[in-house]
Amino acid sequence: MTLKSASAITFIIGIFLVITGWVRSWGSETDVAFYIGGVLFIVIGEMAELINERLKEIEKELNSRYY
Fold first, then answer.
1. Domain extents in the chain
2. Which of 13, 14, 33, 51 has its CB surrounded by the most CB atoms within 10 Å?
3. Cα–Cα distance, 11 to 63 (Å, whole number)
4. What angle do CA 19, 20, 24 make, to 5 degrees?
5. Model pTM above 0.90
6. Are 20 and 34 in contact (CB under 8 A)?
């Protein structure tokens, strides 16, 4: 599994958790945990995508420098 597909799966899981936390009634700690967990999954998915793009830039720069 590549980093890009892993970040996409993480992002999708985050959206699912946010929707699950939003749809359920806001009365218990579980609902808030679903919502916060979903937001964290979305943030981690986006950060993984940014890291992946930066690693590609570094790889391209190193390849052009040494080859």
1. 3-66
2. 14
3. 30
4. 115
5. no
6. yes
